[in-house]
Structures are given as structure tokens and as C-alpha cells.
């Protein structure tokens, strides 16, 4: 016993010990619900048992259940409908990214970092798409570019075609990991598109860029596709920077 105590004493002087973090009951409840969602025991749209029943099943108090549900609701994983109950969220990427969009809205630095991340990822996605893209995808992109040409005076409709254009390229890369990352980055760029759509001539430049990207993809040229996408993203970033100047903003354009 004395030897053990001495060893413990020596160890305490030889190395630091981090404090043991106590996980609250609410956090444990949240983790249990997350596990059930991840494993499919709770499915999108499924209603959770009433708060009282859930607390009884988990062997915890109602305040812990209430706190866990509120936390998961803030993340978009659960939906609280007044008078109806609590439901599992859709788990669609677009909805799950909403909390991160708020962070980007509040911090200009994160938007700059987002542009940097897109510049790293999306040119590579375009290059990979050039080697995998189908004739059907090319036809889809041609249709979307035609839509953009038609709706140059309608920023909201143009933006929908713009989103579909990028999503088609991301899907065409046929790499699930890159698809997940690139889609997340693109969806998080919603704020920059709302701002840049108000800069004079930006939609025309985006249309021109998209045509160059499409030409490279149709030629199945990875290097040209990556170059065209990189140039497009740089111009979008520059347009966002220019939006800080009121003189660059066109009165009456939609804030989409």
C-alpha cells in the first residue's frame, strides 16, 4: 500500500492531470437521442414520445429532457411544433447547415475563410467532374445556362439556376466525400450570393464564367475545368469585396 501511494505521488509530480469532465444529464439525453437518430431508430418526421414519457423511459427528470430537446432543436435535428409535439428533423443537409449560416452571418472572417475553402475544393471537383460527366449532365448544364441568360433581370430565379448549375457539377464528380464537402460549402455561401447579386454586372459575369466552365466540361478537359472554376470563384470573391462600396450596388436589385 505504501509503495502504491508513493508511485501515485511520483506520477502526480511527473505529469499533469486534466480534470475529469462531468457530462450533464441533459447532454447524456441528447447523446442518446443522437445515437437513435444516427442508427435509424428515430427516423425523419417521426414524433418523439411526450416529454413526461420520454423522461420516464430514460430514467431522468423532465428538465433534462426539455434541455436536450431544445439543444437538438437549435441544431435543426428536432422540430418543435406548438400543440403537436416534437419531431425528428428532415436531416437534409440544407436544413442542418442553417445554424452554421447564422455563424457566418455574424462573422465576416468566417465568410472569407469560406471563400478560401471553396477555392481549395471546387476547382478539384470540377476537374474530377470533367472525367466523369455524362452527356445527360452536359445537357442539363446547357439548359441551366440558358435559364440564366433568360433571367438576368431576375436575381432570385437566376440564383436558383446558379445553384442547380453548381450542384450538377458536384454530383457529376461521383465522389461522395467531395460531394458532401462541396455541397456544404456551397450552401453556406448563401450570404455572399445575396450580397454579390446586388453588384452591377455580376450576374452577366457569372453567366460568362458558367459558359467557360461548361465548355471545359463538355471538352472533358480537367485542367481547363479547374481553371475556369477557380477564376469564377475569384471573381465572385472580388464582387463580394466590391459590394462594400455603395457605388457598386445597383438600386432596385433583389437581395437574394
Automatic annotation (TrEMBL):
Q: Name one Pfam family in it.
A: GntR
| Lineage: superkingdom | Bacteria
Keyword annotations for this protein?
A: DNA-binding, Transcription, Transcription regulation
User: InterPro entries per the record?
Assistant: GntR_C, TF_FadR/GntR_C, Tscrpt_reg_HTH_GntR, WH-like_DNA-bd_sf, WH_DNA-bd_sf
The reply to whether Transcription figures as a keyword in the UniProt entry is: yes
In alphabetical order, the GO MF annotations are:
DNA binding; DNA-binding transcription factor activity
Q: Which residues form the HTH gntR-type domain?
A: 23-91
SUPFAM superfamilies linked to this entry: GntR ligand-binding domain-like, Winged helix' DNA-binding domain
Please give the PROSITE patterns that the UniProt record associates with this protein.
Answer: HTH_GNTR
Show the PANTHER family listed in the entry: TRANSCRIPTIONAL REGULATOR, GNTR FAMILY (PTHR43537), UXU OPERON TRANSCRIPTIONAL REGULATOR (PTHR43537:SF5)
Designated name of the protein: Transcription regulator protein
